[in-house]
Amino acid sequence: MAQPIYPEYPPELSQARRQYLLTNLKDWSIAHGLAVRPAPAFVPSEQDPEFALATTAPVTLFPSLFPKSCFEEGLSIQTTYNKLYSAIASDEEWLKPIIEELLDIDSFVEDLWKVHLAVAKDGYVQDLTLGLFRSDYMVHIDSSSSPAVGIKQVEFNTIASSFGGLSSKVSALHQHLESIDAYPSHKDPLIPKGSGVQSSSVPLLATGLAAAHMAYGNSKESRPLCVLFIVQDPERNVFDQRHLEYELSSSHKVRVFRLPFRQILTDTKLDTDRTLLYHAPHDPDTSFEVTTVYFRAGYSPDEYNGEEDWSARLHMERSRAIKCPSVLTQLAGCKKIQQVLATPLSPHLTRFLPNRSEAERIEKTFAPIYPMDLSEAGREARKLASDSESASHYVLKPQREGGGNNIYRKAIPEFLRNTPESHWPAHILMEMIEPPAQKNIIFRNGELQKGGVICELGIYGVCLWKNSKPGGKSEILENWEAGYLLRTKGDQSEEGGVAAGFGAVDSCYLI
Ligand code: ADP
Ligand code: MG
Ligand code: MG
After folding, report:
1. Domain presence at residue 176
2. What is the ipTM of this complex?
3. In this structure, are 308 and 277 located in the same domain?
4. CB-based contacts of 236: which residues, under 8 Å, 6+ apart?
5. At which positions is substrate bound (predicted)?
6. How many CA atoms lie within 13 A of 456 on its CB side?
């Protein structure tokens, strides 16, 4: 790896200053909900039977350095990315042949597709969809291009894009630490005080949910309205979700309930016109009409244990509530779609983004991604992936979300040797992005880890769109960029997921 961009950063901490910084960080975090439930390995359930304890979320002590031009580019192209993915999710005709290639080799994709087909057969009764997206990037240096520093997209998330709650909090934490002089003054004049950026993801994402809630309209039966968060249970990252809920109820006066995925069929019903009704177990006599279903669960095959769970997902999809996201929007987030879009000289991008300069800006963020099928590009990728020397520049990804599913670098050839060739096309092969080296200190599970780190920038996007007839053009009603997330991991780890146990939440110090 290259030399750190600023070898002096972060500045050294004396023992006393480290203590001051850490005490303030720990207390501020709990006082402001920059927190998670502890892992069962740390607090056995018999010691915490009510699941009542909370601990500081994994965070960096300092904001990490991030090139300003890259940060601004990510923010400014987000509304175009929103447009792109809302158009893809509305274009069944385009999606169908791509998804069909995965059906026999990926049963999760197949089951999701079946949900869509079942609803399409009777007809969708809600033409609005909400996307709370997150486009993830790493900084990429290419001395042969101008400018030499740019962003490359890691992936585009269309379901359960997390950490919008905690990202607002961690940037506020770092600003607080700076304001109380917890950081030593930087020797480098290129890193002046005040270079940190606050992320407004909490208010901006909550306003997206509120916009969907409003767009749903009134209840024909004058029932009270609500938004449902479909959640995993237990959920360690609950406070991240709660921040959005509290914002929605305090600033927008919207009722929100958390419904564990497993409780869908017991606690909700469809009325004759497929209006979704929710009966809270604590208040079973009140029938709430659900305007918007926000999925923070349902993205991983482990959550579906048989027919009943698939019936629950179908039940939601058939309903008249606005889905965030719809099944087709979830499928649009498949890594396979990202690979198809990234195919050089493909006509796909211009189908969705006819404005050439918009399409070019998006295209610039694509890293090389190859199919693993029997096409010419696929055969080339198979060769690269099967040789341990060439494979060391790549990551192999299945169509999964939530971290911990990829195969990295030299592990790829062996994985392929143990996988039937007929299943190889369920993956895509992506060139590893190698961001510039830098250092930071991560505080996780009560321990400090100091060393080289890799940062991943996520830009949130809100999009509400209307798709009145299948195959018809979608009409965008709301579209905005919704703040950022910086996640930082040790440079020895390939994965970066905070919830999956590999990284920390961070904020940007623009340079
Ligand atoms: P998931 O949907 O499970 O989050 P990702 O595509 O984001 O899958 O991959 C998980 C992690 O793997 C990323 O957060 C990042 O740290 C690493 N990663 C994925 N693709 C690349 C890449 N092309 N270059 C470098 N790191 C990558
Ligand atoms: Mg990811
Ligand atoms: Mg993802």
Report:
1. no
2. 1.00
3. yes
4. 36, 37, 38, 39, 499
5. 134, 159-162, 235-237, 241, 296-299, 487, 498-499
6. 28
Q: What is the DSSP string of 310-341?
A: HHHHHHHHHSSSEEES-HHHHHHTSHHHHHHH
Q: Same structural domain for residues 263 and 148? A: yes
Domain co-membership, 320 together with 460: yes
**Count of Cβ atoms closer than 10 Å to residue 267 Cβ:** 17
Is 157 annotated as catalytic? yes
Q: Are residues 260 and 218 in the same domain?
A: yes
Residue-level pLDDT at 497: 66
**CATH number for the domain harbouring residue 377:** 3.30.1490.50
Q: Among residues 116, 119, 118, which one has the least CA distance to residue 95?
A: 116
Task: Give distance in angstroms: CA of 249 to centre of ligand 2.
Answer: 29
Under 8 Å between Cβ of 151 and 73: yes
Distance between CA atoms of residues 384 and 391, nearest Å: 6
Cis peptide bond N-terminal to 147, omega within 30: yes
pLDDT greater than 90 at residue 469: no
177 lies in some domain? no
Give the annotated binding-site residues for ATP: 155, 335, 397-406, 408, 430-433, 456, 489, 495
State which of 299, 384, 406 you would mutate to test the pocket of ligand 1, scoring each by most atoms of that ligand within 8 A of its C-beta.
406
Do 340 and 220 reside in the same domain of the chain?
yes
* pLDDT(470) > 70: no
Query: CA–CA separation, 349 vs 340, rounded Å?
Result: 9
Question: Who surrounds ion ligand 3 at CB < 5 A?
Answer: 155, 157, 401
Mean pLDDT of 484-497: 86
Shared-domain flag, residues 209 and 253: yes
What is the number of H-type helices and E-type strands within the chain? 16, 21
229 and 332 in a single domain? The answer is yes
Q: Are residues 390 and 248 in the same domain?
A: no
Which residues does ligand 1 sit against, CB inside 6 Å?
A: 136, 138, 154-155, 367, 395, 397, 400-403, 405-406, 430, 432-433, 456, 494-497
User: Of 310-324, 446-460, 489-503, which range is least confident?
Assistant: 489-503
Count of domains observed in the chain: 2
Q: Record the tokens describing residue 449, joined without a space.
A: 């880890």
Which residues, 6 or more positions from 359, have their beta carbon under 8 angstroms from its beta carbon? Answer: 349, 350, 353
429-455 confidence digits (pLDDT tens)? 999 999 999 999 999 999 999 999 999
Taking the whole predicted model, whether its pTM rises above 0.95 is answered as yes
| 134 given a catalytic annotation | yes
CATH of the domain at 134: 3.40.50.1760
Last residue of a domain, one of 432, 460, 483: 432
DSSP 401-415: -SSS--EETTHHHHH
Residue 500 pLDDT class (50, 70, 90 cuts) = low
Q: Which domain holds residue 410?
A: 368-432
For residue 262, being part of any structural domain is answered with yes
